[in-house]
Amino acid sequence: MAFEGLTSRLQNVFSKLRGRGKVSEEDVGEAMRQVRLALLEADVNFKVVKEFIAKVKERAVGQEVMKSFTPGMVIIDIVNKELTELMGGTNAKLAKSNKPPTVIMMAGLQGAGKTTTSGKLAKLLQKQNHRPLLVAGDIYRPAAIKQLQVLGEQIKVPVFSLGDKTSPVEIAKQGLQHAKDNGHDYVIIDTAGRLHIDEELMEELKQIHANVKPDEVLLVVDAMTGQDAVNVAESFNQQLELTGVVLTKLDGDTRGGAALSVKAVTGCPIKFAALGEKIDALEPFHPDRMASRILGMGDMLSLIEKAQANIDEEKAKEMERKMRNAEFTFDDFLEQMEQVKKLGPIDQILDMIPGMGKVKQLKDLKVDEKQMGRIEAIVRSMTKEEKRQPDIINHSRRKRIAAGSGTSLTDVNRLIKQFDDMRRMMKQFSGMMGGGKNNKMMKNLKKQAGKGMKFPFR
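^ that's the sequence the OP posted. Answer follows.
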């Protein structure tokens, strides 16, 4: 997970400061030395680290800290605010043209995930009730056009293509005209990349830019390349006047230094981050939320937004009623599994909950997709009657279910026991979920999170 190593190191540093009645200048100096090492290990640009530490240290030895009853907590708050500023301060929104369509030009090196990100961005815009058009402008990479067309079919977004014999500049021009003629309000142009930056690549991108005059030029960079990602962003920005950066594979880099360096080095805001391979795994980048995650404070606002966007409210109300009345069945269990899957990987969900990173059992949790598949196979091997009335599943029925699902009797017994335990727990907590109460609770929680709700730094 992104920033895993950095989060762990910073929590160790701040645990020594937390709870102290007094903090000396020497204490602050030692803490900043540890923070500096942690940031450098996370592959943050050394100039960025130097400036960041200087700003934090200057504020941390001020009167507000030295006279505070909780100086350690004040220092953590200072680091949080400076991290937020380092990554851009506020969420940089996507441009919107006064005269549609809004043109977005995607740039980047080959292998950064440009084509996939184009599809993800189209899906995100589609969710916001826009009518995007994808334009296949990469005529050099084998199967690039086909890849975009497959993505387009998957998300039901049209793809404009003239094959691989027409020049990318002409494809971009005709694609823009096609969007105007057919009422599309966003045009996403997927351009070619190279394994490295060269004059030919840049000249082609400049020609496309000159002909379609994009409202956004988004550079797609692979976060796992660390400082190379920042160097690539700097080079592209010098020649192409970028308007923003999209970080891909941020979930695969435990260091995350690119996210902390790219805005400071290039001046370009990070507009989106890809945290997974699924087509909907693209999120607007919020510096304050990311800073909170880095410091182990969680990101409740993003989690609430995910839940509101992906969980069917009517189904939640019905589920709450079943839980309250102890009517929860294995059919409902399957439905709940599907709902949880929509929220994304479990480790990412836990990462958004304050304090969860410090819980050893949860920190080491790795959800095995095969195990999830086995659970599903067991449930689907039950009869309709068994799913509705789990209490009737005796020993002989369990043996049949095990044989039908290709699992062992032990697996079936374990699942049924866990299901019974879960039903008991759900009944106890049913008042906290679903229905009007839950809807009001979610709104209040989101309101508080939006105000910068503070959580204990565990």
